Amino acid sequence: MSNYRSDERQLAEMFKALGNPHRLLIFQRLSRCCQPGTRCDLEAAIRFSVGELGEGMEIAASTLSHHLKALHHAGLIEMERQGKQINCWIDPAVLEKLSGFFDPQTEFENIGGCDVR
User: Fold this and answer.
1) Domain ranges (residues) in the chain
2) Which one, 14, 21, 68, 79, has least CB within 10 Å?
């Protein structure tokens, strides 16, 4: 199977997961991993506990857990247990991959046979 097809499937799973308003909000909170205007790397990515992510969302803990698992399964977030706490973060490469989908200068420019110039 070509790399393009696996990238296409992975992006489809990512966008599908982001189609839920709660998941989109969680991802949006996590995507602010760096100070505006700076370049974020994996070591600098800010990690949030599950409790911090759920603040103000008014959803049950089990529902939040379900949404986090869906985001993790889609490859959008990373999760790590540290004692009793679970921390979540976004690998900056994921943000680059998603933004690259919308950039006509990337490898995705000819999706569907459209020649973008």
Assistant:
1) 3-108
2) 21
pLDDT score for 117: 47
- The CA-CA-CA angle for residues 14, 16, 17, to 5°, reads 65
Measured distance CA(23)–CA(85) in Å, rounded: 20
Strand segments (E) across 6-117: 48-49, 78-82, 85-89
pLDDT value of position 112: 54
**CB 89, CB 45: distance < 8 Å:** yes
State the virtual CA torsion across 103, 107, 109, 112 in degrees, nearest 10. Answer: -130
Please tell me the pTM assigned to this model.
0.78
Q: Which fold has domain 3-108?
A: Arc Repressor Mutant, subunit A (1.10.10)
- Per-residue pLDDT reduced to its tens digit, 22-56: 999 999 999 876 555 556 666 667 789 999 999 98
Residue 76's Cβ-count burial label (10 Å; 0-12, 13-18, 19+) is: buried
Residue whose entry in the numeric block shows the structure tokens 């506990």: 49
